[in-house]
Protein 1
Amino acid sequence: MFEEQVKQTVRSGLARLRGSPGNVTRDFYDHLFKAAPSVRPLFRDDVDVQADKLLDMLVVLVQSLDHLQELVTEIESLGVRHAAYGVKEEHYILVARVLMATLRDHISNWSDQDENAWGMLLDYVADLMITGAREANGAAA
Ligand code: HEM
């Protein structure tokens, strides 16, 4: 699905991630709530619990780059759950932007190639999540 070079770039990025996973995700939430205070109420008070799940999910995605098709249903279901959390389609662009800024800060020697590769992966996941939510919404209507 993704070209080999894109997959290698993403894998190498994850391997170059600096700081503990907890720090990375805490930075992500700090950025996110600063950029968009209005999304804060969607999350539980203690985002640390949630934080690990987001990073775990990214790791699973990167480890699954050779067979992402097998995760399509799971990612679409994740999108359905997100709609139930109150997440709107426009939030995905925001989250992708903040996530990208966080990765840029924490991955050493970040380059345009990293930016492109992670952008493609995040777009792919967000599109599937949005599709899942739309389909569930259509089915319920
Ligand atoms: C790249 C796209 C995203 C990924 C991979 C992702 C991943 C996850 C995962 C794995 C969970 C754990 C709960 C579950 O599995 O249902 C979760 C929960 C959550 N996510 Fe996301 N997410 C993404 C985008 C977003 C966006 C755009 C928002 C909107 C602000 C958002 C808000 C939330 C909220 C509110 C929860 C529940 C938190 C809680 O229980 O306190 N996520 N996300």
Protein 2
Amino acid sequence: MRMPFKRQMMLCGYKNPRYRAYWGYSHYGVDISTIQGKAGDDHNVYASGDGTVYAAGWDNSGGNIVVIIYPACLNHKTGEVYDLVARYMHLQSIFVVKGQTVKAGDKLGVEGNTKTGDYHLHLEFETDTKWPMYSPQVSARDDWMDASQGNLLRKGVTDCTVNPSFVLHRGAGQATVRPTYNPAWLNAEDFIIPTKG
Ligand SMILES: [Zn+2]
């Protein structure tokens, strides 16, 4: 699974303790940006692998979101291989539609700040492909789930998320830049995402 951007800065890690202490709930994905810290000029979000778009559109909790199912993904930390749901949140614009198949490197949309404070991509992976729209991250935020909210995403009561830094690698032409953002929001594994051709 490739990184989502050509050049990017990791901002906040999976279940990072500082995040939980600050916001009062856990972080079930990673936050990555080309814009914060001026990591890169190409703000397109690229598909991590070959997959199928399960949902794409506006959600009152996650902003512009894309949900993709990627089959047979390798967790390079544990050696496990499983199908993964990927949820991309806060996009400025979306280039794909529900039902479309995507190839690794296809453009999914553009990094944005919809339904969040500052420009970044929230990317989370989960092994429970039977319930692709049920996000534990949405569940973590009660303020996202009043009657007017969550029109695409739903509260996920079961946490089947996977640490994105354990399934992502840097593909050809991809780079991460050193965080100028407070690195205490990152985990050790976020600094050692491996390279793969
Ligand atoms: Zn996030």
